[in-house]
Design goal:
The protein is α/β, with parallel strands linked by helices and 157 residues long. The protein is 41% helix and 22% strand. The strands form 2 sheets. It has a 5-stranded mixed β-sheet. Strand 6, helix 2 and strand 7 form a beta-alpha-beta unit.
Length: 157
């Protein structure tokens, strides 16, 4: 069975861990206009069904000073959407703070760098693809998501 880790939001990601295998995907989105996107609800649901999910771990984050109202509303919408899909599919989920999963997954590493989760993911799964597109850089969001899923796998063991 598969554990999913979710870094919510339009620029978030989904991490899947099953046994010793892991895979990460950028959050599926739909283009509304040239400059606006939304989460693709149907595609997100399909990921959950396709992977026969046992449990979902969703990063529990909050607003930070200086974040815009619109971006926080969009982020909260995505966060709630993931929870709603879990409820609709009767998949148990756990909300986990970044501090809690990073304490376990990034123990002993320097704090403050966005690349820490990329390093951790590459150490655990050397061949994992963390690029949202072939031409992009590795995504810390995709690395976070797969690390959250691994945290969940360890917790459920």
């Amino acid at each position: 069975m598969t554990i999913i880790g979710v870094d919510p939001g339009l620029k978030g990601a989904l991490g899947f861990v099953s046994g010793r295998k892991a895979k990460a995907y950028p959050m599926p989105t739909l283009k509304l206009t040239k400059s606006k996107k939304t989460i693709d609800e149907q595609k997100l649901r399909e990921y959950f069904v396709k992977h026969k999910v046992r449990h979902v771990y969703i990063e529990k984050v909050s607003a930070r000073p200086g974040q815009g109202v619109t971006s926080m509303f969009n982020f909260g919408t995505g966060w709630g959407l993931v929870r709603g899909i879990c409820v609709g599919l009767q998949i148990p989920y756990t909300l986990i703070t970044p501090q809690a999963w990073k304490k376990v997954m990034c123990a002993g590493m320097a704090k403050g760098s966005k690349d820490i989760s990329i390093i951790v993911a590459k150490r655990l799964w050397p061949k994992i693809n963390l690029k949202p597109t072939p031409r992009s850089n590795e995504s810390d969001g995709m690395a976070d998501a797969v690390c959250i899923a691994e945290y969940g796998r360890r917790e459920l063991k």
